[in-house]
């Protein structure tokens, strides 16, 4: 696929994606089912079809050869809560106000000899707003049976009302924030699956519930929003899979240093994929995705179901927690606005589709809202999904146009990142780091690994892109970090002390 650059009246560069010309690449379906599958902390190359050789994802690799594969899927944030809210609203985090995991922290993280140069508060919004007409509400009002299963993390239930208050009539095993792990009793939440017992796996049981829902007899079409807790910390593998991957790791060449740390980060990131625990959990996830697809086929629903499979942000590569993944050769990972923190796999199943199978046009998770409405034959809601772009024309061999991609993550994070915002215009991406008060410029088409900072070589482009970035953030009402007051410095210091004490207690356990 080719990416053409055009200029809008406003002077902003936009993408125009040229698709394969085909008279009828997809058949319009009346009231198709919708299955949206979201994976947590899912690195772009956690799958075999994107190059992983240690992890094994045979079912996903097979689906990648059969479904539409979009290799440049950007999440609107390198963190879970903002992206999840953007998927349901079609809006950029800078606009809806959920810019960090919820409820978030204003703690300062940096190198040992550093102090905070700017203050970064908790998110302006503590959850998805009541005023938003969510994707769930859009499908529910169109007569769909709607369901939400798995991780929510878009605001506490007492603040947002949870999925039932945002268009999802049926719910199962809804995780309010991050209170879960892979095995019963699910980090103190046996109520997720009341009939579960010791040894039962959360991913297995969540898939069982999804299968029950999508194969049930019904007169209306369904829309299921299925949010796996995998691959979020804590990572947990089935024993037999862990043993298998331990043997596989033992056969790898010896690596003296498995850590990489560059400028603009205060924690090292994992260099190689070789963690047996992570690989084992991922293998279970892969098997269950295949099992769910098989169930749809057996029930005769597969050819009337649109399926989206993607992640909420890049892989967690920091040594802040055990069992990190690696997204090398992409740079950094979760919480960073480098490619490794923003790119995630995206596969789409369109029934009776004969068009291009691999699309290398950059797209965003904010695009799912208008795209799914169009694919289902429903009217768009442009006043709601303000930042999303309808991708359906791509599947019809046409083009799409969009304004620049903008990311806003104005928070310090323990994983190693500093508060930053970024903008991609054409082939170039500019990153503004608020802590260092500087810019980095990368040609992410010719340098997708972001090794060559071009800011000094292209000062005019750097200046122009920063101006566009700041203009967008101002228009969206985003918070921009500023020099901290004495009270704010104390707040960040106390937050760091609290975190240190909490970590010491965990190590003692």
Automatic annotation (TrEMBL):
Protein keywords: Calcium, Hydrolase, Metal-binding, Signal
Needed cofactors: Ca(2+)
The organism's place on the tree of life at top rank: Bacteria
InterPro entries assigned: Alkaline_phosphatase_core_sf (IPR017850), Sulfatase (IPR050738), Sulfatase_CS (IPR024607), Sulfatase_N (IPR000917)
Coiled-coil zones: none
Pfam families: Sulfatase
KW Iron (keyword) present: no
Occurrences of domain Sulfatase N-terminal (ranges): 32-377
Gene3D superfamilies per the UniProt record, alphabetical: 3.30.1120.10, Alkaline Phosphatase, subunit A
Family membership: Belongs to the sulfatase family.
Name the UniProt record assigns to this protein: Sulfatase
Species assigned in the record: Pontiella agarivorans
Taxonomic lineage of the native organism: Bacteria, Pseudomonadati, Kiritimatiellota, Kiritimatiellia, Kiritimatiellales
């Amino acid at each position: 696929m080719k990416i053409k650059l055009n200029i809008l009246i406003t002077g902003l560069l936009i993408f125009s994606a040229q698709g394969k010309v085909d008279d009828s690449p997809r058949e319009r379906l009346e009231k198709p089912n919708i299955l949206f599958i979201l994976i947590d902390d899912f690195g772009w190359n956690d799958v075999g079809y994107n190059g992983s050789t240690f992890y094994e994802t045979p079912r996903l690799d097979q689906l990648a050869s059969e479904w539409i594969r979009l290799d440049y899927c950007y999440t609107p944030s390198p963190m879970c809560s903002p992206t999840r809210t953007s998927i349901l609203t079609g809006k950029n985090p800078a606009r809806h106000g959920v810019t960090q995991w919820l409820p978030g922290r204003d703690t300062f993280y940096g190198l040992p000899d550093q102090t905070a140069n700017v203050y970064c508060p908790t998110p302006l919004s503590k959850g998805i707003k009541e005023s938003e007409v969510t994707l769930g509400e859009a499908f529910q009002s169109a007569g769909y049976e709607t369901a939400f299963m798995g991780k929510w993390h878009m605001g506490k239930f007492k603040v947002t009302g949870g999925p039932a208050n945002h268009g999802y009539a049926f719910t199962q095993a809804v995780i309010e924030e991050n209170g879960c792990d892979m095995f019963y009793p699910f980090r103190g939440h046996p109520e997720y699956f009341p009939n579960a017992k010791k040894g039962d796996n959360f991913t297995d049981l969540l898939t069982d519930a999804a299968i029950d829902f999508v194969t049930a007899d019904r007169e209306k079409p369904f829309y299921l929003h299925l949010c796996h807790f995998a691959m979020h910390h804590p990572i947990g593998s089935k024993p037999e899979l862990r043993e298998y991957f331990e043997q596989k790791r033992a056969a790898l060449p010896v690596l003296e240093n498995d850590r990489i740390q560059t400028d603009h980060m205060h924690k090292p990131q994992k260099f190689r994929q070789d963690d047996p625990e992570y690989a084992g959990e991922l293998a279970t996830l892969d098997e269950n995705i295949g099992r769910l697809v098989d169930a749809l086929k057996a029930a005769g629903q597969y050819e009337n179901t649109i399926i989206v499979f993607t992640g909420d942000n890049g892989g967690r590569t920091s040594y802040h927690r055990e069992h990190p993944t690696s997204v090398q050769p992409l740079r950094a990972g979760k919480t960073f606005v480098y490619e490794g923190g923003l790119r995630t796999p995206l596969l789409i199943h369109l029934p009776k589709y004969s068009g291009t199978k691999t699309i290398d046009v950059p797209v965003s998770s904010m695009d799912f809202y208008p795209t799914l409405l169009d694919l289902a034959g429903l009217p768009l809601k442009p006043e709601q999904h303000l930042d999303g772009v309808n991708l359906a024309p791509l599947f019809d061999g046409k083009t799409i146009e969009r304004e620049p991609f903008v990311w806003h993550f104005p928070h310090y994070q323990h994983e190693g990142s500093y508060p930053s915002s970024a903008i991609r215009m054409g082939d170039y991406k500019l990153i503004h780091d608020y802590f260092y008060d500087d810019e980095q410029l990368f040609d992410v088409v010719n340098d997708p690994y972001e090794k060559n900072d071009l800011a000094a070589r292209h000062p005019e482009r750097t200046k122009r892109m920063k101006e566009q970035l700041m203009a967008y953030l101002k228009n969206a009402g985003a918070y921009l970090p500023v020099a901290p007051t004495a009270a704010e410095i104390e707040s960040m210091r106390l937050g760091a002390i609290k975190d240190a004490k909490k970590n010491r207690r965990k190590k003692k356990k």
